[in-house]
Amino acid sequence: HTAPPSKNPVAVTSGMSTEKTVIELLGQSQVHIDESALHVDLDMTDFLALISELEISGKIVRLPGGIVSRV
User: Fold this and answer.
1) Which residues contact 7 (CB under 8 A, 6 or more apart)?
2) Which one, of 26, 24, 44, 25, lies nearest residue 34 by Cα?
């Protein structure tokens, strides 16, 4: 499964957790939530649940317009 090019490409290895993959995708930039969802092997419901968990744990923030950013 090949992900489309991104501003923040991340090589996803089989040993990398999905949480770590999302955090690495965000890097130090702000990314639209739909774009980041394209790079993980989760359905949108599970992806949004993961984003919520990351937000609750203080690892990311949601910004207006569907933007997420690493803290």
Assistant:
1) 29, 31
2) 44
Q: Which stretch of DSSP H or E encloses residue 37?
A: helix 33-37
- How far apart CA 17 and CA 42 sit, in angstroms, is 12
pLDDT per residue, tens digit, the chain (71 aa), is: 434 444 444 444 444 588 888 888 888 789 999 988 888 888 999 999 999 999 999 999 999 999 999 98
Distance separating alpha carbons of residues 48 and 51, to the nearest angstrom: 5
Q: Is 1 helix (H, G, I), strand (E, B) or coil?
A: coil
Question: What is the distance between the alpha carbons of residues 13 and 49, in angstroms, rounded to a whole number?
Answer: 22
pTM recorded for the entire structure: 0.71
Joined tokens for residue 19: 């949480």
